[in-house]
Amino acid sequence: MQYDRLRSNSDFQRVFDIGRSLGDNLLAVYAAPNEGRGWRVGFSAGRALGKAHVRNRLRRRLRGALAALEGAGVPGYDVVIIARRGLLSAPYQALTASLQCLLSGLGVVTGGIAGVRDE
C-alpha cells in the first residue's frame, strides 16, 4: 500500500489531539482525518521498548505489516502506530491481525491483509 510518512512533531501532535484511538497489548493506533492529503502514516517505538536497534526492528516490522495491506487504505487520514511491549515477542501473524483489527475499527481501511484470515 502506498502512503506518505508523518515526520514532524506537529503532525504527530495533531493526530493525538484530534484523532480517535484504539489499542491492544501489541499496538496503539491513532487516526485523524486530514485535508485530502492522501494516506499518511507515522511510526513510534519508545525508549522503554529497548535500545535503538530493537526499536528500529519493531518499526521495520510495523512497516512490513502495513505493506501487506492490499490497497485498503481510505484516503484522507493521518495514522500514528505506536509499538507496545507485547510486540517484542509477538509473532508476525499476531502483528498483522492486530493491525488489521485496529485499523478496521477506526475505519481507515477497507478489506483485509494478505495472509490473514478472518475467523
Question: Could you please describe the fold and organization of this structure?
Answer:
This protein has a five-stranded mixed β-sheet, with helices on both faces. The protein has three helices and five strands. Mean pLDDT is 88; it is low at 114-119. The protein has helices at 9-18, 52-67, 92-106, and strands at residues 4-5, 20-23, 27-33, 39-44, 77-83. The protein has 119 residues and is an alpha/beta fold. β2 (20-23) and β3 (27-33) form a beta hairpin. The protein starts with a strand and ends in a 13-residue tail after the last helix. The chain is globular, with a radius of gyration of 13 Å. Helix content is 34%, strand content 22%.
Average pLDDT, rounded to a whole number, is 88
Oligomer kind = single chain
**What is the terminal separation in angstroms?**
24 Å
Helix content: 25-40%
The H-and-E topology, N to C, reads as EHEEEHEH
In the predicted model, the low-confidence regions spanning at least 5 consecutive residues are 114-119
Would you count the extended β strands for me? 5
Biggest β-sheet description: 5 strands, mixed
Beta-strand percentage range? 15-25%
What would the principal axes of the Cα set say about the shape? Answer: globular
Tally of DSSP helical segments: 3
Order of neighbouring strands in the sheet with most strands: 1-4-5-3-2
Keywords:
5-stranded mixed β-sheet, single chain, 119 residues, 22% strand, disordered C terminus, alpha/beta, globular
